[in-house]
Amino acid sequence: MNKTAVIAFPVTVLLAWILYVVTRTGNGPGLKWNMVANNLSFTFSMVGVLYVLFVLITLTTLYFTAVRGASVSAMSVLGSAFVRLMVVFVIAIPIGGALGECYTYIEERAFRREAAQFMATTNADPRNGDRIYSRKRWWPGSSQILVSDSLN
């Protein structure tokens, strides 16, 4: 059972990171403290649905392999496994969210640096209108496009 919890932790952190980044990038650029709780609760809910399925499958498998037909208490085996898996979940979600927030912060800093370099190297041409720099966000939030402020 310890092996299952050890494997579940990084997988849960990765899934929480991916969902948090996708949710976070939909808010637009910049840290919005009022959205962090919403993003984290959405991530908690979405990962939680998948994690409940994982826990049910794990406990069912554990029941048929370790408890059924043995002279051990089902509650002692399944209860400790359940508690261990819940601790993994409760610890992994905030870590995944924090990593996701750091990831988007680093990406936005890189974008501002790229935009500044672009603005420094482009010529002002009044026929082209505003000079802007844009690109897609890094994966996994690549469905959103970052756009710099216009300089003319």
Number of helices: 3
Count of separate structural domains: 1
Helix-and-strand structural type: mainly alpha
Q: Name the average pLDDT.
A: 86
Q: Strand order across the biggest sheet?
A: 1-2
Helix content: over 70%
Tell me the series of helices and strands, N- to C-terminal: HHHEE
Termini, distance in Å?
62 Å
Largest sheet: 2 strands, antiparallel
Cα-atom radius of gyration:
23 Å
Number of strands: 2
Would you write up a description of this structure?
With 152 residues, the protein is mainly α. The chain has one domain (2-108). The chain contains 3 helices and 2 strands. The chain has helices at 2-25, 33-67, 74-121, and strands spanning 134-136, 145-147. Strands 1-2 form a two-stranded antiparallel ribbon. β1 (134-136) and β2 form a beta hairpin. α1 packs antiparallel against α2 (33-67), α1 packs parallel to α3 and α2 (33-67) packs antiparallel against α3 (74-121). The longest helix is centred in the middle third of the chain and has 48 residues, at 74-121. The relative contact order is 0.16.
Strands, helices and their partners?
Elements: H1 2-25, H2 33-67, H3 74-121, E1 134-136, E2 145-147
Helix pairs in contact: 1-2, 1-3, 2-3
Provide a quick synopsis of the model.
Helix content is 70%, strand content 4%. By secondary structure, it is mostly helical.
What are its keywords?
152 residues; mainly alpha; 3 helices; 70% helix; 4% strand
